[in-house]
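Customer ticket, subject: "Can you confirm the structure for DoxX family protein?"

Message body: Hello, I'm evaluating your service for our small team and ran a test protein. I'd like someone to confirm that this is what the system normally returns, since I don't have a reference to compare against.
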Amino acid sequence: MEKPWHLYLMAVLYILAGLNHFRKPKFYEKIIPPFIPYKNYTNELVGFLEILFGIYLFIPMFSNLAAWSIIGLLVIIFPANIYMTINKKASLGIPTWILLLRLPLQFILIYWAYQYT
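Agent reply: Thanks for trying us out. I re-ran your input and got the following:
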């Protein structure tokens, strides 16, 4: 059975987001909360996982596992979104109101991934 087009859209978005972790590592390292050590390694790991899970979404036998893994990853990285919202340096100059709107976006992304579990 063919998967819906929006599954493939999600897969491409995660692959591109993961690649961006390697293109602009300093951007992502700034938003990693201070209680998380090894910022460079953490950034690369998250980028790698986003790419991996995005690729796995294309493979029918792994797409369910990939969707669950994306949900887990979104939960794990949520503290970075909170940190970015409450810390001026981590906000990267993005207005607070936009960062506050971004927080519920995580739940929308979780719901989107849940559609493929």
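A couple of notes from the result: Residues 71 and 110 are 5 Å apart (CA to CA). The first helix runs from residue 5 to 23. Feel free to reply with more questions.
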